[in-house]
Amino acid sequence: MKISPELITTTEDYIKNICGNTAGLIIGDRALEQRKVSAYRYDLGMEWKNFTGLPFVFAAWVSNKKLNSSFIENFNKANLSELEQIDKVVNENPYKPFDLEKYYTEYISYELNEEKKIAMEIFLNKIF
Description:
Layout: H1 29-34, H2 44-52, H3 69-83, H4 86-92, H5 100-107, H6 114-127
């Protein structure tokens, strides 16, 4: 089925207009809250996986210049240190709408591996 959606710029309060034939892209905490009220919802990562068989990369640390190896090593150590504290983060930030421990350990993958690089390349080729 071909559709021709109208893309419009909105403000934060657009969420109250999502109903009937009006859809919206919602991310972050608002998306977790919206799960309670929307009859139809589609997870971008899951739909991409169904479409390509590959994971979706929502974000990545990138640089516009070559970084020295000591910076990369220290950066990776800092990230690993934080990942080892997910239990602490979850305990200090309770969030009833969604299981944050499951979110941070099962829904998010932190390594940019070859499969994800291929997925990013496919995505970029489709949008450009």
